[in-house]
């Protein structure tokens, strides 16, 4: 559905995107994550046809996005910095959307109005930041996009609104197999709704994987031995992080769960717990492996 190959983008002589590949399947909810300045918004601006790449390709539904009005009309884009015409009311903006999105759905517009409960005669620029985000979801979902690209979509929304918005997105994916790409720093919420994640770092795509596979590949282990920690074990398994808390070691280990357990068991531990890692923890440790400064990050 969305396919980016070997994408490079320069701003003067600064390389903002470096050989980026991205693949999003139809009906998938894809979380694009990465530290500040890693290139997420720049990549998104290529997916929405705002930027033209210096090299590589950016395709949606098998077609180049840049200067392709037909493809752009299938994309619902909520940018980080929202823009509405000055002086427009919600109703006026809805009429404009209706004129440019051929699949505009009036019933849906009325139904979502009941979710957000904002007077459609109000001027959008006079609404609060969070309310403007709600309006943006309202209009985007009513235009029945095949692809939704959301850059920091829940920024500024209160916790209840965030739930409502996620429910609307999940419902849309379930009903219409919409393809969704979301960039967000809220990894806890992304973890609940995404099936795939791409982690960016310094303009590169560090990892792109199914979230369940990613989670089954990194583990948090609490372990204690009667005697010293068996140092040789690091030759057998990949330890990303190790720290001592009292007599117990906390380790972050990469690899197959069963293989890791059997390796640790060879040295007869008195405690061995294998715990799941959150997306936030995976993010931090994977970036740590890529040279990102993760010292002083305590869990
Ligand atoms: N128009 C531009 N001109 C020059 N440099 C730019 C421009 N847009 C982005 N950059 C640079 O490209 C890099 C990536 O920026 P981008 O906004 O894509 O990051 P991001 O991952 O979205 O960050 P954040 O999480 O902080 O929003 C940054 O170093 C930024 O300064």
Automatic annotation (TrEMBL):
Extract the SMART domains matched here: AAA
Transcription is among the record's keywords:
no
Annotated GO MF terms: ATP binding; ATP hydrolysis activity
ABC transporter domain segment(s): 2-227
Q: Which Pfam families match?
A: ABC_tran
Name the keywords, alphabetized: ATP-binding, Nucleotide-binding, Transport
Q: Which family does it belong to?
A: Belongs to the ABC transporter superfamily.
* Name under which the protein is recorded: ABC transporter ATP-binding protein
């Amino acid at each position: 559905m969305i396919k980016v190959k070997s994408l490079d983008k320069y701003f003067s002589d600064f390389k903002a995107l470096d050989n980026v590949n991205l693949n999003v399947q139809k009906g998938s909810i894809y979380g694009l994550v990465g530290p500040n300045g890693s290139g997420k918004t720049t990549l998104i601006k290529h997916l929405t046809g705002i930027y033209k790449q210096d090299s590589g390709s950016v395709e949606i539904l098998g077609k180049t996005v840049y200067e392709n009005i037909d493809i752009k009309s299938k994309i619902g884009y909520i940018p980080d910095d929202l823009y509405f015409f000055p002086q427009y009311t919600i109703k006026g903006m809805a009429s404009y959307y209706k004129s440019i999105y051929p699949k505009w759905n009036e019933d849906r517009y009325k139904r979502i109005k009941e979710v957000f409960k904002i007077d459609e005669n109000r001027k959008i620029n006079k609404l609060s930041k969070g309310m403007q985000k709600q309006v943006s979801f309202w209009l985007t979902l009513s235009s029945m996009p095949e692809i939704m690209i959301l850059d920091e979509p829940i920024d500024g929304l209160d916790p209840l609104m965030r739930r409502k918005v996620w429910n609307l997105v999940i419902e849309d994916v379930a009903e219409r197999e919409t393809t969704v790409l979301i960039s967000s720093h809220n990894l806890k919420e992304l973890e609940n709704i995404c099936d795939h994640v791409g982690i960016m770092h310094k303009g590169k795509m560090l990892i792109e994987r199914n979230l369940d596979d990613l989670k089954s590949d990194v583990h948090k282990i609490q372990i204690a031995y009667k005697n010293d920690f068996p140092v040789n074990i690091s030759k057998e398994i990949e330890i990303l992080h190790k720290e001592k808390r009292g007599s117990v070691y906390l380790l972050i280990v990469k690899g197959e769960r069963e293989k890791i357990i059997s390796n640790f068991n060879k040295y007869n531990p008195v405690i061995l717990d294998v715990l799941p890692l959150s997306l936030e923890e995976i993010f931090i440790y994977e970036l740590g492996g890529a040279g990102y400064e993760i010292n002083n990050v305590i869990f």
